[in-house]
Amino acid sequence: MSTEPVCVACGMQYPAPRTACPICEDERQYVLPGGQQWTDLATLRASGDRRARVEEQGPGVLGVGSEPGFAIGQRALLVRTGSGNFLWDCAAYLDDELVTRITELGGITGIAISHPHYYTTMVDWAHAFDVPIHLHEADRQWIGRPDPAIRLWSGTTFDVTGELRLINLGVHFAGGTVLHWPGGENGRGALLSGDIVQVIPDRTHVGFMYSYPNLIPERPSVVRRAAELLEPYAFDAIYGAWWDAIVRTDGHAVVQRSAKRYLTYVQETV
């Protein structure tokens, strides 16, 4: 397992030691109160503090991560389609048990990630399964560990398979992306949103933020555009970034009324 440095706060991996983590120094994230701290996957594995976690989150959707979590703590999602398994987003922790369990499920055909906070150890994941990573080119500057496995796409939509479409909404980051699966939820459709469209405790609504930890709201024009882009897509469920953070029904209407509510309260500023 790799020994490339990994930021303790956000999980971003870099190819060589450094003093600062650009992701954490950005206003959307933060440096830990005690200062920048580093680890690596080999050290995390050797500690024995974590175990692999693979659990069903919905029809054809498995959560993938660790217990306890690490860094930001998000879990990835393994989407089980007719054309193979696809990994949405990336958990920072990876060990042999996770690789074995996912391999026993049929492996994965590719990886796509919603935004830079979840890039983390994506290169190790890609190498473990010999698959490409699909990232939006608007977030190129945030790639911590460049690698030939990374494939940049541009524009508003990109079909990673015949069953899965990436949609660049531009929320949270310029390249902020969601994944639409028309066949999800037994044909009713699913939206895998990371925290580009944030599933909140009130499952009747979702949230839109430029920074979640620092409570900076997203620009109204961006939220308006995101709602317009998602309007033509049918989806019943919305799968967020955290374990069991799921809107189970009426997802399309949830997004549209949430955007309308947001725009009612937040005015465009100069």
TrEMBL record:
- Designated name of the protein: MBL fold metallo-hydrolase
- UniProt keyword terms in alphabetical order: Hydrolase
Residue ranges annotated for the Metallo-beta-lactamase domain, each copy included? 73-242
In terms of InterPro entries, this protein maps to: Metallo-B-lactamas (IPR001279), RibonucZ/Hydroxyglut_hydro (IPR036866)
Any idea which GO molecular function terms this record carries? Answer: hydrolase activity
The major lineage groups are: Bacteria, Bacillati, Actinomycetota, Actinomycetes, Pseudonocardiales
Q: Which organism is it from?
A: Amycolatopsis panacis
Q: Which domain of life is it from?
A: Bacteria
Which Gene3D superfamilies would you find in this protein's record? Ribonuclease Z/Hydroxyacylglutathione hydrolase-like (3.60.15.10)
**Would the keyword Repeat turn up in this protein's UniProt record?**
no
